[in-house]
Amino acid sequence: MLDYQTTAIKNVRTYAEKNKTEHQALVEEICTTFNVDVNFITRKILNRPITLNFHPDRKSNNQLLIIDSLIEQGLYHGQFHTGTTNGGKSAYVGGDRFLWEQRLFCNAYPHDSKERPKYGALNLFNYADGASARFGSSFFTLKNEVVKRCTFAYGDSSTNPTTLCTSDTFVSILAAIFEDVRKNKKFLDRLISTVQETLAILLNTSKNNDLGRNLDYCIETHIHGDISLAEDVECFYLDGSYQGSQIAKKAELLCQMYAVELCWIPKRQLFIKDIKEFFRGEKIPMLAKKIDNTFGDSQGVINAAIIGMASQDSSTNPLAWNDIGNESEIFQYIKQLWHTVAYFG
């Protein structure tokens, strides 16, 4: 890692340690009540996979598809490097992403650095579609050793979270989880009645094949330093809509080249008639129909693979989409259409 990446982790650790005594007392009070060792449960949680959700068929700023760049470079890059995002386009000096990173990491990152944190989430519930489906139809899971160079936030960094920590100060996240359950009967995207039920979930190690459909709540994870496909990535989970496609062939090549296991997420798709405007707005059903007519042979179904084709076309042929919106609007609408499929498909 570069010196300033190490400094960023140290800065977050220092921040977390300011409240460590208070957080430790809260967590130990709860764990002792149910005869659970704090260090044991912390290790259990940090053994859960870190997932990096992304769309493999979007274009990077080098005009290659993300999956082609991954194959060529063998590295997973962040938005400052790729210019690609499934959130807001603010990865520039003075942009929102830049400002919150400077705040989170106490100005550790130089203004001109492209080697900034990569964003994932801790998959506490072992969801089959990753910890944060909002950000992509597919995902990588990372090897557990990477956790040592991660920082964590309770909530998305765009919301200015106040609970930040490292793997060795993770009691802060545990305290935030228990406080949320006590006050709001909520644990991330789930309604949870008691801290006892929360402990049972955190201690459960069985594999979960459920689709979480989680769009908004996560333990955000920032990976500092390079993410090497060969050294750091364990599995590549690809949406079932890509089976038999060129993307699937490229995924097989990537996994063969870098000794990554290829796994499949159950295909998420929606009938066009079931896409209603009240979820993400009136333009989303219109966009879904246009995409289906253009790339889906008017079969009345929308899925990740077809949305990806539309995304590529909208970036190379934006005028063809003017009946729906301008280039910036189409970017947002395509993103919101994916949210609709991820949540309901």
Major sheet: order of its strands? 5-4-8-2-1-3-9-10
**Envelope shape:** globular
How far apart are the termini?
Answer: 40 Å
Largest sheet: 8 strands, mixed
Unreliable segments of 5+ consecutive residues: none
**How do the helices and strands follow one another from N- to C-terminus?**
HHHEHHHEEEEHEEHEHEHEEHHEHH
Overall domain count: 2
Q: What is the average of the pLDDT values?
A: 93
Helix proportion: 40-55%
- Number of alpha- plus pi-helical segments: 14
Q: How much of the polypeptide forms β-strand, as a percent range? A: 5-15%
- Alpha-carbon Rg, integer: 20 Å
Q: Strand pairing plus helix content: what structural class?
A: alpha+beta
The tally of strands reads 12
List the SSEs and their pairings.
Elements (H helix, E strand, L loop, with lengths): L2 H15 L2 H14 L4 H9 L3 E5 L11 H8 L5 H4 L13 H9 L13 E5 L15 E5 L7 E5 L9 E3 L4 H14 L1 E2 L2 E2 L3 H9 L15 E5 L5 H4 E7 L6 H13 L2 E5 L3 E3 L5 H4 L2 H13 L5 E3 H13 L10 H18 L1
Parallel strand pairs: 9-10
Antiparallel strand pairs: 1-2, 1-3, 2-8, 3-9, 4-5, 4-8, 6-7, 11-12
